Amino acid sequence: MAVNAERFLADLHKLRSFGASGVGKGVVRPAYSEADIAARRWLAGRMEEAGLQVRFDPVGNLFGLAEGPSLLMGSHSDSQPEGGWLDGALGVIAALEVARSSDRPVSVVSFQDEEGRFGVTTGSAIWSGHLPLDQADGLADHAGIRFGAARTAMADLAGDFVDPGQFSGFVEMHIEQGPTLDTEDDQIGVVTDIVGIRDMKITFDGQQNHAGTTPMHLRRDAFQALSRFNSLINERFRNVVTPRTVWTIGHVSLHPNASSIVPGRAQFSMQWRDGDAGRLARMEEIIRQTAEEVAGDMGLEFGPLLGLEPVAMDDRLKAALEHGAEAMAPGRWRHMPSGALHDATNVSRLMPVAMLFVPSIGGISHDFAEDTDEADLVAGLKVLDKATQRL
């Protein structure tokens, strides 16, 4: 049977209804939230209807297994705190549609906590063996909730970990989450490699004090330390990075976070990404050296360093996607790297992987405004189907 575009789009919109934000097509479906668990239960039902064997593992990764050896496809269905409707969800629903329409054995997965409420692509990191479960259970979100406590919300569904040995490879379809395809009017991107990532928390401990009576030269202001760190990092990275290198301070927590109190503590996230493992390591050296210098007479603490190495896509799987792209979007596809992180990075520890991109309108993602033209969504589905036939 050919893939059914109407059924595919209907399921994609149905998944959007779980945690719908009320703003555009946005969703609020963080890992282990009520909306996330409800969405996974619904997905499990759709997988069962497709004739797949449903399995939840101990951390909430959801598999729909074909009989015997198979190709694994999918992505994730959790979202950012203010997320778009396609990020991750597209790959899961596209995989489901290919699985139920293809005469080739295809299994489907929706990994848990790809968006990193607790870490970096947590569910697939655990399944791949990159992150031990006991270590993952100690990770905490920004509210202080531990991963081990959060996953008990799915205890009634949990089974054993799925054996990766039954899969011949993994293919993940995703929105680009950047502007290249949209700007260049291309319909399909065949991914060549995925950048590596490093992520840590840094804490500056200064001295909490009265904002009106403490002279400036006597202050040990933790936020001023953070501000100086940020300025120095931008300057010191200049001769190390490339135009593709990115770094972000995306979460900051000040204590006691009051207008009339000099902040005594600043805790913040530091994340950096690049396609070269050596450059990632050099950036880590600069970050640590700069933080130590800025701290001076303050206390300094580095949280655990989480990270994944850059990954090149498998030639055979990539060639199948190239074949599909040329068949469905001749002259409107390109090779491109992924600047965003994906579950495929973790899965590459277990089997060959490849990725397929469709455009993001305006290059917007991780936002309620995230969207892709439905014609491009269907084109991506058909490329995935063509690639599956070739494999």
What is the gist of this entry?
This protein is an alpha+beta fold and 391 residues long.
Structure overview:
With 391 residues, this protein is of the alpha+beta class. It has helices at 5-16, 34-49, 89-101, 122-127, 133-137, 147-150, 180-184, 222-236, 277-295, 315-328, 343-347, 374-390; strands spanning 53-56, 62-65, 70-76, 106-111, 167-175, 188-194, 196-205, 209-210, 246-248, 252-255, 261-262, 265-274, 299-302, 306-308, 311-312, 333-338, 353-358. Strands 1, 2, 3, 4, 5, 6, 15, 16 and 17 form a 9-stranded mixed sheet that branches. Strands 7, 9, 10, 12, 13 and 14 form a 6-stranded antiparallel sheet that branches. The protein has a two-stranded antiparallel sheet with strand order 8-11. β3, α3 (89-101) and β4 (106-111) form a beta-alpha-beta unit. The protein is globular, with a radius of gyration of 22 Å. The model has no long low-confidence stretch (mean pLDDT 96).
Number of beta-strand segments: 17
Biggest β-sheet description: 9 strands, mixed
Q: What value does the average pLDDT take? A: 96
Oligomer: single chain
What form results from the Cα inertia axes?
Answer: globular
Low-confidence stretches: none
Reading the helices and strands in chain order gives HHEEEHEHHHEHEEEHEEEEHEEEHEHEH
SS-based class: alpha+beta
Helix content: 25-40%
Distance from N terminus to C terminus (CA atoms, Å) equals 16 Å
- Helical segment count: 12
Which percent range describes the beta-strand content?
Answer: 15-25%
